[in-house]
Amino acid sequence: MKTRITEMLGIRYPIIQGGMMWVGRAELASAVSNAGGLGILTALTQPTPEALAAEIERCRTMTDKPFGVNLTILPSANPPPYEAYLDVVINSGVKILETAGNNPKEFIVKAKAAGVKIIHKCTAVRHALSAERNGVDAISIDGFECAGHPGEDDVSGLVLIPAAAKKLKIPVVASGGIGDGRGMAAALALGAEGVNMGTRFCATVEAPIHENIKKMMVEKTERDTNLIFRTLHNTGRVLKNSVSDEVVATENRPGGCEFKDIHHLVKGARGREALETGNVEGGLVWGGQVVGLIDDIPTCAVLLERMVKEAKQHLTYALGMFE
Ligand SMILES: Cc1cc2nc3c(=O)[nH]c(=O)nc-3n(C[C@H](O)[C@H](O)[C@H](O)COP(=O)(O)O)c2cc1C
Predict the structure, then answer these.
(1) What pTM does this model have?
(2) Residues 32, 125: one domain?
(3) Which of 139, 168, 301, 316 has the fewest beta carbons closer than 10 A?
(4) Residues 199 and 228 in one domain
């Protein structure tokens, strides 16, 4: 396939595996890149910048194809050393950076000076335009369906993707709710030049998480997600389980709640343990509405070949309606 995204990133198929806390490790990133897409390591899954450097080296032993690193910059009382992680990306020679959350201009300038291409992931056209003005190379636009943080505007991909594609000059990657060839075909028809997926890649053979979590993703339907942190104006979409149900119930109780009231439920260590031990009720499991479209656990190679083939079939079929 040929789009500005495949050309810019040097990949065969315009399919990107978005950064995923505790999941975006070398096993998955290398498998996606070997399958012709773009795998992405998640910087903050590594406890220190030095550990990220080692993970990048480990990924290099598993693929000779391009891969990227995600750096998610969120407001925090005790922030990780973001710039040191960025320096590792630059010094290790990785040429693709996915940013999410904040996107400080000085980071963009520094990364670009080192020849790094930046894909900024955001959830609103106004944020995408501002990132474009600051010099990023591509935008991943995350619709309301997505896993993770969909923002507070609640605009789903069917509107958000063309709205972004119409306004931006740089290429748009559609993110959120995509898990098969139909979704990919739709994204391309809406004006995107590539797709970004999170949840779908969790249910693959190579995702370094427990089999029970993958099976949970096969079983869940499109109605099985919860929106947490709504009342704290930091919405997150996660899979429905007893922990996320309790978070929602606590937020909705009369008088609402403060973060400290739910911290014991939502803390990262609990989510990590759930992914590692397979205790599907053990903590938050991040996932999007696309779980309703997941019904198997393929290898990344099978998934990508199938998606591309199906996308072409669906677009050809739709084109036939004009004759
Ligand atoms: C388990 C999981 C963890 C995630 N962690 C991050 C993260 O740390 N940083 C980030 O930018 N996005 C994160 N995301 C969001 C994905 O990169 C991607 O934008 C999103 O999953 C797209 O929606 P989809 O799941 O419908 O494909 C995560 C998603 C999942 C499923």
Answers:
(1) 0.98
(2) yes
(3) 316
(4) no
